[in-house]
Specification:
Elements: H1 5-23, H2 26-31, H3 37-52, H4 64-96, H5 105-136, H6 138-151, H7 161-179, H8 191-211, H9 220-261, H10 268-301, H11 304-317
Helix pairs in contact: 1-3, 1-6, 3-4, 4-5, 5-10, 7-8, 7-11, 8-9, 9-10
Length: 336
Amino acid sequence: MNLDEATCIFGAGVLINHHQALAGEIEAVRTGGEDIDPVHDARVASRRLRATLPLFNPCLPAKKGKTWLKRIRKVTRALGEARDTDVQLEWLGKIYINLPEPRYKPGVHRLVLRLRQKRDRLQPPLTRAMEKLVESAILDAMGAHLEPLAARALDTYVYTPVLYKHSFQAISGRLETFLSYNDIVYQPEKVTELHQMRIAAKWLRYTMETFAPLYADQLKPHLLAVKAAQERLGDIHDCDVWLSFLPQFLEEERQRTQEYYGHERPFHRMVAGIQYLCQERKNDRDELYEKFVGEWKEWMARDLWMSLRRTIQVPFLQPGSIYPPLATGPNPQSPA
């Protein structure tokens, strides 16, 4: 749809926040280190940029939006594998110190070793990805375009009917995709589809957060639910990844042992620990899934998603109900 100037100013303010969040983590990610938070924070910022750039593409310089999005997508991918490995190592660290039997330690210790080796291998390409991002000057170009546009919010009333209509259409589209997985909620074996539902929840959340300032605190309960759904489905997906990965890991270690020693006897010490992890992840998944289904039923009983539709529809259908109210005098956002 065609976006007015005020909507572009609003969008620039959102985009520049995500832009600055990503730019602020580049050096820490590039150099690596023991602190895993910069990779996480940079990944989240890049995801938010990816979710928000298409919403305000008409406000960007011609053909630049697609170029920027393509580069940010590459950064997200590079950050993703490193972050996933960091999370796996973090979980294993907590598990290791609380193992109920000593016989589980050799297998878990070997798994930690292999994942640390993997994380070390991932750092050089991650460093290169950050350096290429800087060399491309895309963030500089984005900042040069967005900063002066966002600054105009100080003397521009941005809460126009066009902005509310854009918000309504964007959130409605994401919500429809999210709710299309309703039947999947009750099918725990649908691993791929539950993962896709998590992704749909993530994009819905980011879109809602983009436009949340338009509705005061009216989106808060819906955002809490979407965030909970995303996190619960994310935890379920983590378990599914482990349950797929651990048997493969065990087979790879068996082959390594056979090739190195000429027999498999040292390998047998690792089996109990990996089998223990498999059972732990299965138990965790069952518990997480049961909780998610219970939460979903509660949200449906509260008519939460239809309530979200109504909330974003009211300002669109009834301009007099827009929050903040339409200006009748001097711009309320202007300095006195």
